[in-house]
Amino acid sequence: MSRMLITGMSGAGKSSVLHELGERGYAVVDTDYGPWTTEHGLWDEMLMGALLGESNEVVVSGTVSNQGTFYDRFDHVVLLSAPISVLLDRVRRRSSNPYGSTVAQQEEIRANLATVEPLLRATATCEIDATQDLSSVVDQLERLLRVP
Predict the structure, then answer these.
(1) Domains and CATH numbers, the chain
(2) C-alpha dihedral sign at 61, 65, 66, 69
(3) Are 92 and 101 in contact (CB under 8 A)?
(4) Residue 98's pLDDT is what?
(5) pTM score, two decimals?
(6) Which of 18, 42, 71, 85 counts the most CB atoms within 10 A of its CB?
C-alpha cells in the first residue's frame, strides 16, 4: 500500500469513498472531522506532518488551500470530479455533513468548481470520474493503492 490523498469539491464523494476504503481495511483519515483542520480552514501542519511521517500506509481525504504543502509525501493525489449538477444534488441530499445545504454554500461550490478544481486538476496525479457507482470508484482507488 501507499499514501494517498483524495481531494475534490464538496459532493464529489470523498467521505463516501473514504468510508468504503475503511470498510475494506485501509487506514483512513477524513480531515473534515477531528483535529486535522484549524479554525482558519487549513490543515494543522504539525498534525498532518506527524501523520505522514509515521505512516507509510494511509488514505487521507480533504480539500484545503495548504494541502499542496504535503503533496511530496503522498504517492498519489487523486481528484474526484463530477459536474455541478451532481455535486449540488449530493450536498442537498446528504445527512452526514450540513455544508452545501444553503443557497450561499451552493454558490460557493459553483465558484470553487470554476476556480479551485482547475488548480487541483493541475496538481493531481490521477483524476477519477465520481459519477460512477461507489464500488467502481473505490476499486480504482484500490488498484492505485497497490502501486507505490
Answers:
(1) 3-145 (3.40.50.300)
(2) positive
(3) yes
(4) 84
(5) 0.94
(6) 18
